[in-house]
Write a structure and sequence with these properties.
This protein is mainly α. It has one domain (35-198). It has five helices and no strands. α4 (102-143) runs antiparallel to α5 (148-198). The longest helix has 51 residues, at 148-198. It is elongated and about 70 Å long.
Length: 199
């Protein structure tokens, strides 16, 4: 154990502090903000495409069962609400430039992180449950005429996919997004502090 402590103290005594200029750090941070904004735009565009596709399906196909209409209504409503929430969050990080309003941008970035955490934790379950019930009602008319083993296969796949999405995929996404935002917030705080020191 003593050897480990010696190695560790030797390592710390030889650590080199890498200094990077405020301009370089600002350029890195701007690239990361652009990346987050682009991902946010892609999420919104994907949701709008889903909304348009399901709406077109509803308008151009003649469904007989009330369950299908109820299912599509639930799915479209859930997608519309989720898209609106994504859009409101996107406005927080695209509203102003860091260089013009650093404090406001930093606060908006923190609020964006809090909103994303709530979106992928609490609101996710509302969205997932609405989609599950909506698709269950939608497929009732379509799948009810098929053999029982096919109905069970479709139902099992839907349940397994929801569990997989709700556990592994969602948790990995939340972790990666939180790490990225925390790092970005830390960079902007250091940049702000560096600009204050320069003044």
């Amino acid at each position: 154990m003593q050897e480990f402590d010696q190695i560790q103290s030797l390592w710390h005594s030889h650590s080199v502090e890498v200094k990077i200029s405020g301009d370089e750090m600002l350029q890195q941070a701007k690239r990361e903000v652009n990346s987050i904004q682009n991902r946010s735009r892609l999420n919104i565009a994907g949701m709008l495409l889903s909304f348009a596709f399901i709406l077109a399906l509803w308008l151009f196909f003649d469904f007989q069962s009330w369950t299908t209409h109820a299912g599509i209504t639930i799915v479209i409503t859930a997608i519309a609400i989720y898209t609106f929430i994504l859009y409101r969050s996107h406005k927080l990080i695209s509203r102003n430039d860091f260089t013009a309003h650093p404090k406001e941008f930093l606060e908006n970035l923190k609020t964006y992180g809090i909103n994303n955490y709530a979106l992928y934790n609490k609101l996710y379950w509302f969205y997932a449950a609405a989609l599950f019930v909506g698709f269950l009602l939608y497929f009732f008319e379509t799948v009810s005429n098929l053999p029982i083993y096919f109905q069970m296969a479709v139902g099992s796949f839907a349940i397994l996919w929801m569990i997989f999405s709700a556990t592994l995929l969602r948790k990995k996404f939340i972790k990666n997004e939180k790490e990225r935002l925390d790092l970005l917030i830390e960079k902007f705080e250091r940049i702000s502090a560096q600009f204050k020191e320069d003044k």
